[in-house]
Hints:
The chain has helices at residues 2-31, 36-62, 73-81, 92-121, 124-159.
Amino acid sequence: MKQRDELISWLNDAYAMELSNMKILEAHIDDMDAFPEIKARLQQHLGETRQHAERMKKCIESIGAKVSRSKVGFGKVLGMLQGRSSSLFNDEVVKDVLSESATEHFEVASYRSLIAAAEQLGETRVIEACQQNMQEDMAMADWVDGQVPALTRRFMDTQLAE
Ligand SMILES: [Fe+2]
Ligand SMILES: [Fe+2]
């Protein structure tokens, strides 16, 4: 019973994490007017993130438990990675993609952990849902990481050129 309760608690952490990621993504989307292709990919991932939250909710309910919105759990750790920029220059767009990268990698690690826990308990439905979420978060992590050098150069050329 203890193992099952912990799995439910971790699923709730993942649910809370996805809900908070939706808010962060919305803020980043607002910052990206000058970078339409980044904005579009963030918007796509916002849709995926909404589904991730929904999948976690269904997993919790399929085990016969209730979702708890009061969970902070992972959110606390992520909050530190998602702080807003304090630079002299308006380097928000660069900080946004760095925070986005940290978030996606953290999500992937969280789902790896959840999958291991669900495997231990034979919760097939949870394993599948976490794998689906993890794959989309991995794809997003790869894409974001690929954007970092070019975005940094563009920021320097357009905002910091003398
Ligand atoms: Fe996700
Ligand atoms: Fe994600």
